[in-house]
Amino acid sequence: MSGRKFAFFKNRNNKGYLFILPFFLVMLTFQIYPIISTLNLSFTAPLNMFENKFVGIANYERLLTNEIFLKSIFNTWFMWLLGFIPQMIFALGLAVILYEWQVWGKDAFRTIFFLPNLVTAASIGVLFAVLLDWQTGTLNHVLLTMKIIDEPINWLSKSGMARGSVAFIQWWMWFGNTAIIVMAGLSSISGELYEAAFIDGAGKVQTFFRITLPLLRPILLYIVITSLIGGLQIFDIPRVLTNGRGAPDNAITTMVLYLYNQAFKNFNIGYAASVAYTLFFMILFFSIISFKLISGKKQKGDDEI
Amino acid sequence: MSIRTKMMALAALLLVTALPVFATGGQEEAAVSQNPAEMSGKIVVWSFTDEVGGMIEHFNQKYPNIEVEYVVIPNQDEVYLNKLVTTLRSRDAVPDVFTGEAAFFRQFVEAGFWEPISDAPYNAEELKDNLVPYVVGLSRDANGKMTALSWQATPGAMFYRRSIAKEVLGTDDPAEVSKWTSDINKYYELGEMIKEKYNGEKFLVSGYTDMAQFIYNQRKVPYVVDNTLTVPGSLIEYMELAKDMRTNKVEGGVGTWSPAWFSGMADASVFTYILPTWGLHYVLKPNAEPEASNGEKEFSGDWGLCVPPAAYSWGGTYIGISRFSEKKDLAWAFVKHIGSDPEFAKYWAEKTGDFVGNLNVVKEIKDDFADPFLGGQNHYEYFYNEVKKIDVSRVGPWDFQIENAWGDQVELYANGEKTKQEAMDGFVTAMADILPDVKVVFEGR
Fold first, then answer.
1. Which residues, at least 6 apart from A283, have a Cβ–Cβ distance to it below 8 Å?
2. Is the same domain home to B416 and B289?
3. Is A67 in Cβ contact with B16 (below 8 Å)?
4. For residue A34, is the peptide bond before it cis, meaning its omega torsion is within 30 degrees of 0?
5. Structural domain contains residue B387
6. Could you give the C-alpha distances from A238 to A162, A234, A278, B264, B336, in angstroms and in order?
7. Do B149 and B160 share a structural domain?
8. Per-residue pLDDT, B172
């Protein structure tokens, strides 16, 4: 019996499967099974905390007509773009300055810019909640002492301010990290190209747009895609900045925060699962789009050569 | 990749997917042994505060051979609730016993997480005559069976600073102060007086949200009846009150449970705290006078108990046996001891000043209770009278989420971010997310 059972592995070439088996078992248990189980859940609605009933695609129908979910999509994109665009500009600028101009103490600057990224996002959210607090916050205290305002301002109750804060934190946390990646990209551009450009009489600005930027494209693609995936999943900072329910008035409810609140505050697991699947396809879709947009031209160029 | 390997991968996938189906186990009937000393074993108890931890010592005096492992999982951000729900969904035998708070425990009852204890071998119905009726009533499931007990009943009160009362009203007598606090209009007026007296540096109440409990308790019927959620008129009035208080700076603008809310207890900047029975010994004492509540100092006696504008009950922790426990006899011994034993109730009342759920004990001790924290005032007598007013026929499983959603909109209205109509529309939108099948109507509109 046992001889026949293991006959498959007698073949030396098949032994390799034994070695990759642990990985696949872990992946099946902790990745594939949850993914399938989530899909299954997304077609159910809870009867109580214990039992679910099958409801077909009702969750998805509800989701796509839900005001708060649509708002959360807008919030997510809005806050991501509001943080990402300045982050990109800052990172490019800083990287070029630090790399090309050989600024004195550039390693120290690099470290300082990177520091906010070392602190967990949740702690930074708490920190900003304390700074912006209405009654006891540092910002109001400073402004009051400097006589800029007469009365404390309830910052986090204003939707614009709350969204702005999230975007600002995202920018502040990530521009250093992005700058370092861009610098790594810059160092891979051959110095000969710059030399040639210099000899041909190109200025700094021309060199930047004609040489640096095009050759940075793969790195920029990497940054855009990782930031997009991270940005669409933003959760921790909105979660801790206000009361966790996306206050004020769902202004900073992001898609993942919405998912979380549905699953773990309203205990509507099936509905939350349908949010998760919608989010998954959305990220997939936009990742493909951004990949095509940025790398498309280059591949065409490759073909011509 | 051969077909065979593909088949294997598929089989592994099916196996993993099918696991939960086979994981549903049968349940065993528990036999309840009679002699406490003979019962032995280990049970695991989960709760969201350390309160129950202080009860194990007394339990072990009677049941020396039952080891109790006590696990505290704080419920901030619903962590306790989620951990418990996930555990029970997986039908784990641990914990044997767990607690639930009034704000969410009806969910447990409806889901059947707790073992019904009305019938043999538990026979909890025999105990109920000694217990506060509303506490027993609230634990009943759809079949009318009791599911959990509680060591406490939680009528509400209001606590005030005697020194501020003396300066503003000229007296700190609880009866005199209650004349000002027992009516919402007089209470507001008192707030104006405090604001003027201290130039806006001291406040009547930390934040208007403190008043939410007695306002929510004014509803006459459950929020949700036959898939229709009726917002009571009292909640709409609450919006106006909140906005008035915030605009006129009668309240301090501090949210309940925020750090500033706690520090207001110690720095004498707030006149009243609206808290129930447990709020006195569990929240107010340790935060207002931490040294004295550790026994390092005498209480100053600067606090008093007065009558709030409306009667209410807030919170209350229930304790029951997990449906999936494999040691239900031991678990029941623990639940029964904490939830009904008169000796324990007396011990607990004297140790903490908490208002216990065993009425025989309450009657026995209520007349000669004097709390040094309250300047020698007898809060037990007051709570004994208040507990009779509690009506729990209007408690439903989603109260917590409904009240939170309403509170969010009240805050937006009070801050001037929204108009009243926008706030009410915002509530309808929020409820559509929590209870999608329920229609929202506003009383009197």
1. A228, A229, A232, A233
2. yes
3. no
4. no
5. no
6. 9, 8, 20, 27, 44
7. no
8. 93
| Residues B194 and B249 placed together within one structural domain of the fold | yes
Q: Which of B241, B229, B239 lies closest to B191 in space, CA to CA? A: B241
Does one domain contain both B242 and B202?
A: yes
Residues 6+ apart with CB under 8 A from A201: none
Neighbours of A78 (CB within 10 A): 16
Pairing of strands B41-47, B97-101: parallel
The number of C-alpha atoms within 13 Å of B143 and in the hemisphere containing its C-beta is 10
**pLDDT of A246:** 75
Indicate the pLDDT class of residue B27, thresholds 50, 70 and 90: very low
Instruction: At A117, list the tokens.
Output: 């990224």
CATH number of the domain bearing residue B343: 3.40.190.10
Q: Is the pLDDT score of B183 beyond 70?
A: yes
Range of the domain at B162: 156-312+392-442
Q: Which residues pair with B305 in a beta bridge?
A: B159
In this complex, which of B4, B77, B107 lies closest to A244 when CB atoms are compared? B77
Q: List, by residue range, all CATH 1.10.3720.10 domains of chain A.
A: 66-304
Tell if the CB–CB gap between A249 and B418 is shorter than 8 Å.
Answer: yes
**Are A43 and A57 spatial neighbours (Cβ–Cβ below 8 Å)?**
yes
Identity at A35, one-letter amino acid code? I
Cα A152 from Cα A143, distance rounded (Å): 8
Q: Tell which residue, A216, A217, A207, has the closest CA to residue A290.
A: A217
Distance CA B238, CA B68 (A): 45
**What residues in B contact A50, CB-CB < 8 Å?**
88-89, 111-113
A262 in reach of chain B (CB within 8 A): yes
**Which of A 109-168 lie inside 8 A of B, CB atoms?**
134-136, 154, 157-159
A243 burial (CB, 10 Å; 0-12 / 13-18 / 19+) is middle
Please report the pLDDT score of residue B25 as a whole number.
Answer: 38
Domain assignment present for residue B46? The answer is yes
Residues A208 and A194 sit within 8 Å (Cβ to Cβ): no
Structure tokens at B292: 């004295």
Of A68, A244, A249, the CB nearest to B412: A249
Q: Does B111 touch chain A (CB under 8 A)?
A: yes
Q: What is the CA radius of gyration of chain A?
A: 25
The tens digit of pLDDT for each residue in A211-253 reads 888 899 889 888 988 898 889 889 989 988 877 777 788 889 9
B267 touches chain A (CB under 8 A): no
Strand partners, B114: B322
What sign results for the dihedral spanned by CA atoms B411, B417, B420, B426?
Answer: negative
Q: Is B333 in contact with B347 (CB distance < 8 Å)?
A: no
Q: Tell me, yes or no, whether B47 and B103 share the same domain.
A: yes
According to CATH, the topology of domain A66-304 is MetI-like fold (1.10.3720)
Chain B residues near residue A244 by CB distance under 8 angstroms: 77
Alpha helices in B198-266 (DSSP H): 212-216, 233-247, 259-266
Domain count across chain B: 2
Helices (H), A101-216: 106-114, 121-131, 138-145, 159-187, 191-199, 204-207, 213-215
A226 touches chain B (CB under 8 A): no
Q: Chain B interface, mutation test: which of A266, A268, A271, A275, most B Cβ atoms within 10 Å? A: A266
Any A CB within 8 A of B37 CB: no
pLDDT in tens, A54-84: 998 999 999 988 889 999 999 999 999 999 9
Q: How close B387 gets to chain A, by Cα (Å)?
A: 30
Q: Do B425 and B296 reside in the same domain of the chain?
A: yes
